[in-house]
Amino acid sequence: MKARCIGSMMALLATSGAVHAQSFLVCLRDVAPTVVQDMRYAGPNNFTGDPVPGYDAAECWLARPAAEALAKVQAEMEKAGKTLIVYDCYRPVRAVRHFLSWARKQGDKRDPAYFPRVDGSKLVEQGYIAARSAHSTGLAVDLTFGDAGAREPADTGGLFDLFDYVSHTNAKVSAEARANRNVLVGAMAKAGFTNYAAEWWHYGFKGSAPQQDVPVKACGAR
User: Fold this and answer.
1) What domain count does the chain have?
2) In terms of residue numbers, what domain contains 96?
3) Sheet strands (E) in the chain
4) Which tens digits make up the pLDDT trace of 118-128?
C-alpha cells in the first residue's frame, strides 16, 4: 500500500503544473531579478534553429535551493561590476526528447556555428546530446557572465552549446577566455554548484529531485 501511495503521488507531481510549481520550482526573477535572462530554447537562437517544444515562455525556473544559491552568486558578481547571464534553467522532459529526435534527422549535416567537426546524427553517440538531463529536475543551469548593465557575455572561448572539444572547461583557449572560465567556476563553486567538465557553461546544484515535463511558463502563469 505504501509503495502504491508513493507511486500515485509521483504521478500527480508529474502531471500537475500547480503542484509542480509550488513543490519544486520558483521563478528566478522573483529570487534574483537582476540576473540577465537570454533563454535560448524559447526562440530560434539555438542549435536546432527553432523554438524548442516545452518552452512556452522565455523564463528561467529553478528548484528553490538552486535559485537561492544563484542569487548569492549574482550578489558577488555585482560587487565586481558583473552580472550572470542565464541561457537555460529548468528543461521539460519533452524538450530533451525533442533534441534526441532532432539529432537523428541530421544525417551528415554539420553546422559551422554549433557542430563544425561532427555529423549531426552522431551528436548523441558522442555524448553531446543526452537522453536524460539534470535540467529536468530544476537543479541545473547553463550560464555565463558579462559586465553589469549589458547583455554582452564575457569572452569564454566558445559559444554556448558549441558541440566541440573547445567547450570542455579545461580546453586550451586564450588567456582571457581561461581567466573568465576560471572566474565562473570559482564563483559558482563557492555557492555549491559543480561544473560539468565537458561544457564550460553547465552547472549542477547539489541535491536531487524528480524529472518533470511541465512546460516553461511566464512568471505568475502557474
Assistant:
1) 1
2) 2-205
3) 25-27, 36-37, 61-63, 82-88, 140-147, 193-195, 202-205
4) 999 999 999 99
Largest CA distance in the chain: 60
Residue 210 lies in a domain: no
Could you read off the pLDDT of 192-217 as tens digits, one per residue? Answer: 999 999 999 999 999 999 999 999 99
Q: How wide is the angle at C-alpha 198 spanned by C-alphas 137 and 144, nearest 5°?
A: 70
Rounded to whole angstroms, how far apart are CA atoms 179 and 172? 12
Alpha-carbon span 178 to 124, nearest angstrom: 27
Q: Residue 114 is part of a domain; what is its CATH number?
A: 3.30.1380.10
153, part of any domain? yes
| Single-letter amino acid code for the residue at 208 | S
Axis-axis angle for helices 175-190, 64-79 (nearest 10): 130
Which pLDDT does position 149 carry in this prediction? 86
Does some domain include residue 220?
A: no
Q: What angle do CA 52, 57, 59 make, to 5 degrees?
A: 105
pTM of the predicted model as reported, rounded to 2 decimal places: 0.88
Active-site residue numbers? 199
Check whether 218 has a pLDDT greater than 70.
yes
